[in-house]
Amino acid sequence: MVRSRALTMIALVAGALLAGCAAPSKSGYTYTSSEARRPMQVQTGVVQAIREVRMEQDRPTGVGTGAGAIVGGVAGSNVGRGKGAIVGSVLGAVAGGVIGSHAEQSVSDRPALEITVRTDAGRTFAVVQESGGESFAPGQRVRILTDPVRGTTRVSQ
Prior knowledge:
elongated; alpha+beta; five-stranded antiparallel β-sheet
């Protein structure tokens, strides 16, 4: 009975962890519904350089830490009886929280590209966006789309 409850709790927490780590795409070819039908300034230019980088969340949600602490606490409470179960629960919660925090970060980090572009007007700048979907190479002509309201810029083919 206790094992069944523990497995149910673990499954619920794992589901919450995965849902909490989902983040909208920051790629150059994905748009949110609020960006649709919105005017953007368009420039053209040439890719000067490409560098692979990692994109991580600005602020961790804490879901991984919380879920890991709950799972670790439940698992640790099954160690011993009385004070042993309490100590096991506390140590399990601490270890689970640390592991959950690292798991959340590794799930939410995404591969990205730093694309350096020189516009036809002579201005050079870099844009970081999630990789995938479009490939870029030095010397390639691209479009630079800027949303003046949000201050966001993306590079597109």
